[in-house]
Amino acid sequence: MSQENKKDKRDIIRQKMIERQSEARLVRKIVLIIAIILVITVGAIAGGGYFYIKSAIQPVDPDNKKEKKIEIPIGSSSTGIGKILEKNGIIKDARVFKYYIKFKNETGFMAGEYTLNPSMTIPEIINSLKTGMLQEELVFKLTIPEGKQLEQIAGIIAEKTNRSANEVMKQLNDPSLIKSLMEKYPNLLTEDILDKDIKYPLEGYLFPATYSFYKENPTIEEIITPMLDKTVDVLDEYQIAMEERGFSVHELLTISSLIEEEATEKVDRNKIASVFYNRMETGMPLQTDPTVLYAQGEHKDKVLYKDLEIDSPYNTYKYPGLTPGPIANAGVVSIEAALVPDESDFLYFLATSTGEVLFSKTLEEHNQKKAKHIQ
Fold first, then answer.
1. Going along 149-301, which residue ranges are E strands?
2. Gene3D superfamilies from the xrefs (predicted)?
3. Contact call for residues 204 and 157 (beta carbons, < 8 A)
């Protein structure tokens, strides 16, 4: 190869190296620009969130001393209090208020009538709400246990309020009340509760807890409002988990109710949840006895083979997937099990007479346990 050819070849290689270096610099510059944009974007979002929250905890109007009479009803939750304050222009954002008091671990809010104004800071408002005086003595308490169906809850309410259970049920299912509650709780009571196959719209939505009432003869709406507020408060803690699983509120309360109704004190509810999910993933019907009893409107200890023939969308022996809606109310443990089930290969479970629940991977294994433990 001649000297001239060698020189030409070196020039070509050098030119390519220059081009590659130029490309590398360009790539680094692009990466740097993208990184800067991302940092600025994230910073702007974080900064925007910070300034929004900072603004939300400031007085609505520092110069406005005009006083307002604010009524905080008995049994109001932090969510309910925040909505009342926001509606009356005392705070800027009910949700920020709620998380602020949770972060500060503020409790002990009292019902009553308060004189507040838009110039007050959130700490001042909180202090006022904690020093109020109850205007009435406790009249009665309602304890709603976990796993109770709407008809049973109606019976509990009836017993405490001198109403008949039929009267309470009629009011709980009154279309005008349901419509009013849906407007009041749009994120909780959605169109799902009006599905044509739904037995009772409010089934599963009245949270199990003990509620205190300080008023003689409260209306049904006044009785169940704190129960719905409690459901909102509880579910609010699981918003991220619900989104990750792709659950609507209705779906979560539905599967949680199935877990609740199948559970015993000795059972691992996360395992029951895993069985339900495994069955749905393989296309198997859930085949859970409580849904059959719910379809029949009965409460009995044993489900017979003839019971399984009832033609109802709630009968999970006939229809695959979830029931149209909840079949009872569910507690926190069952809700958490629905959101964080165990990872297992179980497809069957069997409750023994002692309350123990046995899990199996195959039908053969399940039948063997059934023959041994169920007489």
1. 210-213
2. Classic Zinc Finger (3.30.160.60), Endolytic murein transglycosylase (3.30.1490.480)
3. no
Contact assessment for residue 119 and residue 62, using Cβ atoms and an 8 Å cutoff: yes
Would you list the domain boundaries of the chain?
Answer: 1-48, 68-130, 140-236, 253-373
Q: Identify residue 112 by its one-letter amino acid code.
A: G
Q: State the Cα–Cα distance between residues 295 and 282, nearest whole angstrom.
A: 24
Predicted confidence band of residue 6 (pLDDT cuts 50, 70, 90): very low
Considering Cα of 23, then 28, then 34, then 36, what sign does the dihedral take? Answer: negative
Q: Which long-range contacts (CB under 8 A, 24 or more apart) does 233-237 make?
A: 233/77, 233/78, 233/79, 234/207, 234/332, 234/335, 235/188, 235/335, 236/79, 236/98
Domain 68-130 CATH class label: alpha beta
Phi and psi at 112, nearest 5°, equal: 145, -175
The DSSP result for 281-304, as a single string, is: HHT-----HHHHHHHHT---S---
Q: Judge whether 25 and 19 are in contact, CB under 8 Å.
A: no
| DSSP strand pairing (68-72 vs 348-351) | unpaired
The model's pLDDT over 178-199, given as tens digits with 9 standing for 90+, comes to 999 999 999 999 999 999 999 9
Q: Token pair 């949700």 is at which residue?
A: 95
How many Cα atoms within 13 Å fall on the side-chain side of residue 278?
A: 19
Residues 6+ apart with CB under 8 A from 323: 254, 258, 291, 294, 313, 314, 316
Identify the residue with better confidence: 149 or 76. Answer: 149
Residues 119 and 65 sit within 8 Å (Cβ to Cβ): yes
CA proximity to 193, closest of 330, 326, 328, 334: 326
Q: What does each C-alpha distance from 35 to 40, 46, 353 come to in angstroms?
A: 8, 16, 63
